[in-house]
Every structure is written in structure tokens, then in C-alpha cells.
Amino acid sequence: MTCPHCHTEMYQANQRWYCFTCPRYAFPGDGPADIERHEHERQAALVLLDVALGDLAVQRETDRQILSEMEATMGQLIQTRGCSKCGGTMYKIIETDQHGTPTGESPYCCHSCGHME
Ligand SMILES: [Zn+2]
Ligand SMILES: [Zn+2]
């Protein structure tokens, strides 16, 4: 069998004929029109796959944006001030709800000496 597109010999594997130089394939008994139809079906399937993967990529991007918005609105605020013992930087973590209202906070803790207030 010869590929109707490339005019090269096709080889047989798994009950199908495959072209060496292009993605075309044929079932036993297929004519050139059948081979072109298979190729169109294959390309259509690839387009559908592209669309599906594209939707997934968009979905992932949306998820990422929602996550970062949640981090911004439900995340933790960090406040700093000077340490009274060593002069280093003390910090505390303020947890907020989705409205930005503080729901809890840790004591100030010095980054340098570990002093807590
Ligand atoms: Zn070919
Ligand atoms: Zn300190």
C-alpha cells in the first residue's frame, strides 16, 4: 500500500497501515479517500484535545487567581516593631477573615533574640 499523500510505501502494524513520513494510516482495504478521512478525523480529534487542554489551562489560571485572592483577603498580616531588649525586629502575625477583620493574633516575637511580648 502507498500513502496517497506522500506516495511512499506504508508499513503494516497492529492491523493498520502506517505511512513512514506523515501521520496517515489505513485499515486493510481502505482507499485513498478513506485514508484522507482518517487523517481529517485524527486532526479533528487533536483540535478537540487542544480545546480541552486549553480549557484546563484556563481553569488552572482561574484557580490560581482565586487562591491568591484568598491569600490576600484571608491571609495573615504581619506587623513589626523594634525589640525593647536587643533593638532587633519583632513581628506578630494577625489572622484575618475574608472581610479583613482580625480574628486572632500572635504575641510580638523578636526575630533576633526570641524575646516575646
Ligand atoms: Zn504519508
Ligand atoms: Zn530582641
Task: Kindly describe this structure.
The chain has 117 residues and is α+β, with helices and mostly antiparallel strands. It folds into two domains: 10-71, no CATH class; 75-110, no CATH class. Helix content is 37%, strand content 26%. It is built from one helix and seven strands, in the order E-E-E-H-E-E-E-E. It has one helix at 32-74, and strands at 10-13, 16-19, 25-26, 76-82, 89-96, 102-105, 109-110. The longest helix has 43 residues, at 32-74. The model has no long low-confidence stretch (mean pLDDT 83). One zinc ion binds at residues 3, 5-6, 19, 21-22, 24.
Topology overview:
Blueprint: E1 10-13, E2 16-19, E3 25-26, H1 32-74, E4 76-82, E5 89-96, E6 102-105, E7 109-110
Antiparallel strand pairs: 1-2, 2-3, 4-5, 5-6, 5-7
Bound molecules: zinc ion (ZN) (2 copies).
